[in-house]
C-alpha cells in the first residue's frame, strides 16, 4: 500500500506567508462594524423621533469609528500611510474602495455626534445653528453609506490568497453585515431607555438572525478549511459567537422590550458575540496559512474538476 501523501512545504517553508497583521485588525473589524450598525440605528431613531436613542447611537458610531481608525493606523505602524491611500482611486482594489468608503462615512458621523454634544446654552449661536442644520442630512448620508462600511472588510479579507477567507468569499459579507447590525442594535439596547429602543431591538434581531443563518450556510459550504474553523481557539471563538448571539437574540425578542436590565444584558451578549465572530474569522484565516494542505488540496481539486 502506498502511504497517504504528506503535504510538506519546500524546505519547511509555508506555501503562503501568514498575515503580518496583529490583533489590532480583528478589533478594527469589530469596531468598524459597530460604527456602521449604530449609524443606521441613529438614523432610524432620528426619523422616528427618538432623541435619546439617536444621541447614544451617534456617539457610539463616532466612538467606534475613532477606535477602528486607531486600530487600523496602529497596525500600519506609520499614521501617514492612511493619508497615502487617499492619493489614488482604484475600483479593482477592495483596500482602495474601502478607504474611500470610510472617508465618506466619517464626516457625517462626526458632524452628527458633535451636534449631540453641543450644550443647550450654545444652541442659539450661529456656529451651533449651522451645525444643527447640516448634521441631519450629513448623518443620514453616513447611514446610507454604512452598509458599505460594514461589508467592505469582508470583501477585503476574502480577496486575498488566504484559504480560510477566500473559500468563504460569497458568504462572508453576509456574516459581517449581520454581525454589524446585531452589534449596532445591541449598543442601542444597552444605552437607550426601554421606551425608545424599539428600532434598536428590531435591527438587532434581524442582524443576529442574519449572522446565525449566514454563518451556518458558510460552514455548510466550506471544504477542507472547515477543519481550521472547528479546532482549537478558533472553535472556541466560534462557539462563543454562536451561543452569545443566540442568547442575545432570545433576550432581544423576549426581554428587551420589558426590562432595562434585560435590554442591557441582551445588548451586551450581541456585542460580545459580534466581537467573537470577527476574531474567529481572522484566526481561522491565519491558521490556514500554516498548513500547506489548505492551499494544495483545493488547488488540485479545482484542477481535476476543470480537466474532467
Quick overview of this protein structure:
75% of the residues lie in helices and 0% in strands. It has twelve helices and no strands.
CATH-derived topology: Formate dehydrogenase/DMSO reductase fold
Distance between the termini: 26 Å
Order of helices and strands: HHHHHHHHHHHH
* Range of strand content: under 5%
Work out the number of β strands: 0
Instruction: Give the integer mean of the pLDDT values.
Output: 87
Radius of gyration, taken over Cα atoms and rounded to an integer in Å: 21 Å
- Total helices: the number is 12
Decide which structural class fits the backbone: mainly alpha
Pfam families: NrfD
Keywords: Cell membrane, Membrane, Transmembrane, Transmembrane helix
Subcellular location: Cell membrane
Transmembrane segments: 25-44, 56-77, 97-118, 138-162, 174-194
Give the secondary structure arrangement, pairings included.
Blueprint: H1 24-47, H2 51-76, H3 80-84, H4 94-117, H5 126-158, H6 163-166, H7 172-191, H8 198-221, H9 226-229, H10 232-254, H11 260-288, H12 293-307
